[in-house]
């Protein structure tokens, strides 16, 4: 946790490499100090088939999923920072957006949480 999923039109990868996009989101999230060291996960999903509005040619959207507990201001700042840096990388993109959503701690589970040795229910147990 957190998870950042980059969805974009396939042509974006002609403008920037996957590593440039992944690294921009990863490094920006890391620099905020909001997340535990080595917890950040970033994935990229390009789309070959999509439909956009008239005159629009491409898009990129970052879905950020983070554990609840950060303020609205922290989430908004994270969203703005990612948007700003990606805008610099992709100045001619038609649509560029970022949304940050909370995971609810009460309904979240992972491998560490179901480990019978993890009596303290630490979601980072054994990592």
Automatic annotation (TrEMBL):
The gene is hpcD. InterPro entries: 5-COMe_2-OHmuconate_Isoase (IPR004220), Tautomerase/MIF_sf (IPR014347). It comes from Chryseobacterium gleum (Flavobacterium gleum). It is an enzyme of class 5 (isomerase). This is 5-carboxymethyl-2-hydroxymuconate Delta-isomerase. The lineage of its organism: Bacteria, Pseudomonadati, Bacteroidota, Flavobacteriia, Flavobacteriales. Its EC number is 5.3.3.10. The keyword Isomerase applies. Pfam families: CHMI. One of its GO terms (molecular function) is 5-carboxymethyl-2-hydroxymuconate delta-isomerase activity. Keywords: Isomerase.
């Amino acid at each position: 946790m957190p998870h950042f999923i980059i969805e974009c039109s396939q042509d974006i990868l002609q403008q920037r490499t996957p590593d440039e996009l992944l690294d921009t989101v990863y490094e920006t999230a890391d620099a905020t100090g909001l997340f535990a060291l080595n917890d950040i996960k970033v994935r990229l999903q390009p789309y070959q088939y999509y439909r956009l509005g008239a005159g629009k040619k491409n898009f990129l959207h970052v879905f950020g999923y983070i554990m609840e507990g950060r303020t609205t201001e922290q989430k908004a700042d994270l969203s703005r920072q990612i948007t700003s840096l990606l805008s610099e990388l992709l100045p001619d993109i038609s649509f560029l957006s970022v949304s940050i959503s909370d995971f609810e701690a009460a309904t979240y589970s992972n491998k560490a949480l179901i480990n019978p040795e993890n009596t303290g229910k630490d979601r980072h147990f054994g990592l």
